[in-house]
Amino acid sequence: MSKSPFSWLRSGLVWFWNALDTGRRTVLNLLFLLVLVALAIALFGGGPKSPGPKTTLVLNLKGHLAEQTSGNARDALMNSVSGADSRKTLQLRDVLSVLETAAKDPDITGAVLLTDELDGGGQVILREVAAALDRFKASGKPVVAWGSSYDQRQYLLAAHASEVYLHPMGMVMLEGFGRYRNYYRDALDKLGVTVNLMRVGTYKSFAEPFIANGPSEAAAEAEAYLNNGLWNAYTTDVEKARKLAQGSVMKTINDLPALVEQQKGDLAKVTLAAKLVDGLKTKDEVREMMVKRGVPDAKGKTFRQIGYDEYLARIRPKLTGDAIGVVVAQGEISDGTASAGSIGGDSTSKLIRAAREDDSIKAVVLRVDSPGGSAFASEVIRRELELTRAAGMPVVVSMGNVAASGGYWISMAADEVIAAPTTITGSIGVFAILPTAEKVIDKVGIHTAGKPTTWLGDATNPLRPLDPRVGQLIQGSINHIYADFIGRAAQARKTTPEKIDGVAQGRVWTGEQAKERGLVDRLGTYGDALKAAASRAKLEDYRVVYMEPDVSKVDRIIGLLGGSAAQAVAQSVAQTLGVQWKQSVTLSTGLPVTAANGIAQDLGWLAELTAARKPFTAVTHCLCESP
């Protein structure tokens, strides 16, 4: 019996599908095989080709210097597509690794440091890099720095070079530390927004911009003391590196108008006369100088060199053996899960737990760079470190740029706390802030009413005045959390709550000032923290493993989409405080967009607290950053 046309068609489709499936599997298997071959070559292929003798390492540092890259590749792609801020991040660990490896590399004979595209970085991590440059020079390899101009962050690195050159039209801009803040009391009154603040700590000034038109006497005193300490450390460092007389930096700044007049407005010559640089050269003149000192490349147009990124790609981490696990706690502390470059109570605790449960990891270093945030999330992280110590694993805290308020809280369960002299720490205090907008809705004719079963029903509705009984409850809770804070700090520092309270009250200190007051164990670097952890774990040869988060995007989307009617109301307040305010300020006053953005950011933060899911959030935050 002959087959029908439909049978032939069906047989043809089956054959085609089988052929397609076989081809697909073949292609995928080939791709998988290529990946395995590439990995094998990378791991066992003998390493990259030597750059050649008398090679100069070009440290063209581009981007923001930070402890950890924020987000992930997908975030970076989305930022690029949307036009959002997608600045490159330079990880401190990578810069240190490059300098340490190059110092021992016989093919590397020196370095050229270019800082024009270095976009920020706190004082502690800048000094970490500066110390690494000193170690590189101590190995007998000179460092030549060049910049078209230097801001004071860039110059802190350049000052540690063997030679510092500046473009003839450039300048070194040393401005000092400290800034003016915006205060919004009158503006919020005009908007009809009432800010209800509950706090503990005379110096806990985070929320002062929302309740006053200027800083309190205590806040001004504390800020001046902190900034003067940081500035003294900066000028001392620069003067020592440049072999200048003590006080010469401040003298140059104070005499600047007269010095500029003497040099007929030539700021580069003013800088040269002040001995902040060794010479005035264009970039091509520096290149020509390096060609004469080094080995010309194959084409003879420049000197033999290898760039920072290329050299970093050649460095292979050790993959086996006993390890120290490093958990980076960078950014604001929030409840739940956070991506890399920020701190989540649950996600950071998970990293600590993963380190504890890894048999190859023998000690944990918590590297902190955080101004604080949620008190609850801070305690979740502190508890995880406490469990790690209870399991017999040493824990060492290394304080970076900032480890204040909640950042100090998470540092209280360690065998040893090491701060840098210019770390900003302390700020032991707690507050809660609840903005209400009952006057706003009065202006537009909106009314709210209801019959809850208790006086607590809808008690934190931002469209109603805050019930004094609610304020009393929250203040009581804040008092309790503060007592818990200083109690845990006293236990950690082996002293009494009364003595901790004497240096707490929300006041911030430099690392050096904190050491004098017993808030940290000693001053040192990140490298010192690794050595301390290795010593406590009795390790001589060890590798460093960075515990990296793996955050699901689904959780973030759920967080964005979830919420209640109360959150919707809160978002309307956020709109009033944020977008509309920025637009009105920009249009009605002609303020620069950057200024309007800063105002919107401040008020947007205030609105975010209103939109929180809890009735209120106990906040341990210092409103501070490393200058």
Automatic annotation (TrEMBL):
Protein localization: Membrane
Major localization class: membrane
Domain (Peptidase S49): residue spans on this chain: 136-290, 389-539
Alphabetical list of InterPro entries matching this protein: ClpP/crotonase-like_dom_sf (IPR029045), Pept_S49_pIV (IPR004634), Pept_S49_SppA (IPR004635), Peptidase_S49 (IPR002142), S49_SppA_67K_type_N (IPR047217), S49_SppA_C (IPR047272)
Transmembrane feature ranges: 27-47
SUPFAM superfamilies: ClpP/crotonase
Keyword set, alphabetical order: Hydrolase, Membrane, Protease, Serine protease, Transmembrane, Transmembrane helix
Transferase keyword on record: no
Family: Belongs to the peptidase S49 family.
Protein name per the record: Signal peptide peptidase SppA
Gene name, Swiss-Prot/TrEMBL: sppA
